[in-house]
Amino acid sequence: MGEQILNQLVWPIIYILCIAVPLILAVAMFVYWERKVIGWMHVRMGPNKIGPLGLLQAFADVVKLLIKEVILPSSANRFLYYLAPLLALVPAFAAWAVIPFGERMVLSNANAGVLYLLAMTSLGVYGIILAGWASNSRYALLGAMRSAAQVISYELAMGLCLVCVLVLAGSLNLTDIVHAQAGGKGFLDWFWLPLLPVFVIYFISGVAETNRAPFDVAEGESEIVAGFHVEYSGSAFAIFFLAEYANMILVSFLASVLFLGGWLSPFQGWITADVSPWVNWIWTGGFIWLFIKAFLFAFMFLWFRASFPRYRYDQIMRLGWKVFIPIAIAWVLVAGCMKYFGWVSIGTGV
Amino acid sequence: MIDPNLFQLICFYAFGVVTVGAALAVITLKNSVHAVLALVLTFFSTACIWLLAEAEFLAIALIVVYVGAVMVLFLFVVMMLDIKQEQVREGFIRYLPVGIVVALVMLVEMLALIGVRAMQAIPMGANPAAAAGMSNTAWLGTALYTQYLLPFEIAALILTVGVVAAVALTLRQRADRRHESASQQVRVNARDRVRIVKMAAEQPARTTAQPQQPGDQEAKP
Amino acid sequence: MRHAEPKLPDRHPTVTDAPDGAEVRSIVLAEYWPVLLFIGVATGLGLVLLAIGMLVGPRRPEPEKLAPYECGFEAFEDARMRFDVRYYLLAILFIIFDLEIAFLFPWAVVFEKIGMVALIEMALFLLLLVIGFAYVWKKGALEWE
């Protein structure tokens, strides 16, 4: 009995904390990094007062948010008002259960992993809609409707991109998808090359899906102040913030796993030397490569934010429905032909 | 020491209780948004039961399609239609007899249809996908795209009709709509918008001359 | 993160041996149990954060502070208003296309084994999808002003 509880409950929860705690820390550091990078791009210093180089700024912000008052607006629906941040946070975290960090480094090697991810990302819209409605405020409701319509539009494009990956990989399992990208030509074997348009669409849809600049009309601080979470304060706001950044990091990891070979090394097959376990990962692959790739995508989020002016709402909807979805539908068939006629080489495992 | 089969049974009953409880909440809650959320919970726990029955693909597809898409529409509708709660309660009592009759007929039909077969079948029997040595999704796909090819294409046809019907029923063009065509904006030429005209330099007008017409000076390029 | 667990040669066995020798019905449950736990942990995290905020933070309600935010103006009326019908249309279109994507998932996994037939039937499916899509486009339902 004791051993069973240990195996079925204690160990899984420890593994879960091994993902969730670093994720929270990563969000904190990502917020710091965002302010620093955008500062540099604006020729400013960014945060530099708290801790060495301002490194403790994010933690100071967390403490500040937690000890602030959580305001419940008088006309709000109390139950839904507190439920909405939870509904935003849970899918953003639960999606991490199926991400493979390395060979056999995965919490749940579910067969329908990609479908599960699609399910989790589609649940994120509930937090947005409910927050907007429960606040009973004009700005919140307007932001929620804009955001919901935008998120569901780009989710279609994202789903079609996932189908393209599945067509080549032939499996819904994320570990299998990474294995299918292994080969002797290193980074030329990854799916970004045969699926180049889809790869671009996927990442841009990811930016739109997380409501980040230049697709952040839902926040639109010059018109509707902060969008769906305008009435939230203190820790309730912190949860929305955490969910948004966790989603950004999730999109970065997913783009790396689906299109850039996950933990595979870009030089795989080029070098076969056996030097030492400390150096071998550079060409045999390891979770460090996944983190490097995800970091690059996460950096792109910030780069976009500092570079592009905000889209107009009709332009956003046009891009999603009239550009991305038709291209993605066409590429599903192109990918089918590629696979069927053997135009691309698909790895079968390491 | 818990027997895995017993554990599965416990899970089944736990999810079953949640499903039934949430379904009851859907029809009893006064706030329609709460009712929609209860329906979401119903779908979610149903998906968990399907997972127990090892219908992996269907369980998650249920969440994607029903929770992720259909319920979002429900939420849009009940939130924005702003239904007054008192009216709903009146209707509840008025339509109760009709509702009971419909429910009874459905119950009898379902019992007749599946009850007899269910008597003989083993609940949550052996997983045919595992027996065939492939994942649930692959097994389902193989069946769907070979054996049930025609129903699949008919489903596609029905979905297309659904798209057309949705647009035909709901789309009302407003007379005052102003639409900007992005492709026109991109294709526009600088020459179409701005005309640069060469002209001789002019002396500024004397300040003493005709001070009563100040707009005159501004009109000059 | 699960380390050093021997990878099973057949990933979908009907019966696997649990560590204590008991018979576990299927790997499906073994894989989705941690997922359910993760959902539980995430919910717990959210609740803890909310609880900290409510316990540690001050609570000094004031009618002005609790009023809905409208840039300092008095709120006109209840904010729940009717929305343009195009939002509903968008949601309906989303349902239909989402369903079609759900159909594509199993196809993507098996089409190579089935062969040319599967490719052609999916081309037909997508053709129908595109016809519907073209109709929506032509009618101007995708245009926002």
- Structural class of the helices, strands and pairings of chain A? mainly alpha
Task: State the CATH superfamily name of the largest domain in chain B.
Answer: NADH-ubiquinone/plastoquinone oxidoreductase chain 6, subunit NuoJ
Question: What is the average per-residue confidence, as pLDDT of chain A, rounded to a whole number?
Answer: 85
Rg measurement of chain A, Å = 21 Å
Largest sheet of chain B: none
Distance between the termini of chain A: 38 Å
**In total, how many beta strands of chain A?**
0
Oligomer: heterotrimer
- Choose one word for the global shape of chain B: elongated
- Stretches of chain B where pLDDT is under 50 for at least 5 consecutive residues are 213-221
Major beta-sheet overview of chain A: none
Per the CATH scheme, the topology name of the largest domain in chain B is Four Helix Bundle (Hemerythrin (Met), subunit A)
Number of distinct helices of chain A? 11
Describe this structure in words.
Chain A has 350 residues and is mainly α. Chain A is built from eleven helices and no strands. Chain A is globular. The two termini of chain A are 38 Å apart. The mean pLDDT of chain A is 85. Chain B has 221 residues and is an all-alpha fold. Chain B has three domains: 1-84, Up-down Bundle (Four Helix Bundle (Hemerythrin (Met), subunit A)), CATH 1.20.120; 91-122; 129-171. Chain B has eleven helices and no strands. Chain B has helices at residues 4-28, 32-52, 56-81, 85-94, 96-120, 128-131, 136-147, 149-170, 182-187, 190-193, 215-218. In chain B, α1 (4-28) packs antiparallel against α2 (32-52). Chain B is elongated. Helix content of chain C is 60%, strand content 3%. The radius of gyration of chain C is 26 Å and the shape is flat. Chain C has four helices and two strands, in the order ββαααα. Chain C has 145 residues and is mostly helical. Chain C has a two-stranded antiparallel ribbon with strand order 1-2. The longest helix of chain C is centred in the first third of the chain and has 30 residues, at 27-56. Chain C has helices at 27-56, 63-66, 85-114, 116-138, and strands at residues 16-17, 23-24. The interface between A and B is medium-sized, with 29 and 26 residues.
